[in-house]
# Entry
Amino acid sequence: MTARHIPFMTLAPREDGAAVRGAIERVVARGWYVLGPEVEAFESEFAAAMGAASSVGVGNGTDAIALILRALGIGPGDEVITTPLSAAYSALAVVMAGARPVFADIDPERLTLDPEQVARAIGPRTRAILPVHLYGQAADMEAIGRLASRHNLAVVEDCCQAHLATSGGRPVGTIGIAGAFSFYPTKNLGALGDAGAVVTSDRALADRVRRLRNGGQTDRYHHAEAGVNSRLDEMQAAVLRARLPFLRGWTARRRALAARYRSALAAASPAIEMPREMDAGHVYHLFVVRAKARADLQARLAADGIETLIHYPIPIPRQPALADTRPADCPIANRACEEILSLPLHPGLSDEDADAVAAAIVNKGSGVVS
# Structure
């Protein structure tokens, strides 16, 4: 039994603390809080970091997806194929745009959209594919890209868990027409509240998203179309600017911890199963294992002072909020939702705590994954 309490995550600033406090003080001293110089600077810096030509700051990651779809002209009567395993916000963003989410099952190893299932789901109303780079691992973008090209579909990437991730060496968010990022505080690059961004190398698309996020205004008080109010504020932009230089180091730390887990947890097989690292560009937003006896394993870890979470316990097609979309059943995702368990993994986690988590699983884990 571990003598320490190991929280799932800690959100207090650490090595970035002085930079974050300085950013907040700078904004307060300037007295400009919405769509000002901090947002403009962050948009430029984040686009460069993600390898895109443009970035547009918005209120959150959900809005980022919805605004991309709207900017592409996707809405009522259209369908967008997406994954059943994600935060429900991925599909809710499609609904916000007025379109219908269509669910294709997942690859059992990658846990992201299965291109073969996507191909079966394409119909006459399909306008786009929305892959989610889940837990920090990119979807199979090469296969999804081929499908999209064959059927003349847009690819909109949900990168909300995948800051700096790559697919075959290509930065996520730059492979499709655009990528949506979230800066919710728990994300690899987190704000001190809600925040999001769209990245794209299509300048016309960026211009329309920029207009839509601000009520559809072409200039002050002139609304050319019915936009929304989804603006990244100056305070969050300044905090994100302060933290962005730390992101590569934090990503390297996440990868090192994941490798440590993988090595130590090999001794727990077949009690648990670790989804494969399908691409070296994985950025480990979460470290997820699978266990048939998940409830028992989670309870035993809690008794040892180790906090774990489940991302996500309910497949999106089974959410009552999506019932009106006539969702298809996705058995592989259904099973995954019954077995997945997220272990503590964040840049502030020590090697000793990671080793304690792994040791507790090796000693306490139960249930065989077949």
